[in-house]
Amino acid sequence: MKKILSIIILSLLFGGNGYAKEVNLSCELSKYFIKESVLSDTKQIPLSTLDASQLAKVTISFDIDNEKFLGSNLIWPTEYKSVIFTGDEILFVTKGWEDDNVFYYTTRLNRLNGELTRTTQPTRDYLNGQPKNKKNFTDLGFILSKVYQCKVVNKLF
């Protein structure tokens, strides 16, 4: 009887973390904003005018129990340093302005309403390398913001 009781207790102690709570999200673009420079206003672009590739669904997976980002078809491992989980949001921390790529991204997932906000901005190195006398596609103050509405989905297999 003692052996059975000890086996049950040990299995409860060690078996509790065997199945992490994986959360899978499917997100659809709901808003698209662009600000072309410091001097321009932010404009909302109608979704009907966007290319189909911009409207593709986004998937994101998290291990909520262990506070780990598992993967996405939008967020790549090379674009963030860490992921911070709070009660209200999940934030992907990047190098920001100091990044050595052309753009840097700020990505936040609101855990209360399922809204994923992703902004794209040029890095300092990119802006410093642009000719000063030419109208650039990306200027100081350029911000592209995409807002997605996410829902929890079950994996089929």
Question: Which term fits the overall shape?
Answer: globular
Strand content: 35-45%
- Describe the oligomeric state of these chains in a short phrase: single chain
Described by strand count, sense and barrel closure, the largest sheet is:
9 strands, antiparallel
Rg: 21 Å
Helix content: 10-25%
Instruction: Tell me the number of strands.
Output: 9
Number of domains: 1
Low-confidence stretches: none
What's the order of the H and E elements? HEEEEEEEEHE
Number of helices: 2
Note the gap between the termini. 40 Å
Class based on secondary structure composition and strand pairing: mainly beta
Summed over residues and divided by their number, the pLDDT gives a mean of 82
Question: What this model shows, in words?
Answer:
12% of the residues lie in helices and 40% in strands. It is mainly β and 157 residues long. It has one domain. Strands 1, 2, 3, 4, 5, 6, 7, 8 and 9 form a nine-stranded antiparallel β-sheet that branches. It is globular and about 75 Å long. The model has no long low-confidence stretch (mean pLDDT 82).
Task: State the main characteristics.
157 residues; mainly beta; nine-stranded antiparallel β-sheet; 2 helices; 9 strands; 12% helix; globular
Element layout with pairings:
Elements lengths: L1 H14 L6 E14 L7 E2 L13 E6 L4 E5 L9 E4 L3 E5 L9 E8 L4 E8 L1 H5 L14 E11 L4
Antiparallel strand pairs: 1-2, 1-3, 1-9, 3-4, 5-6, 6-7, 7-8, 8-9
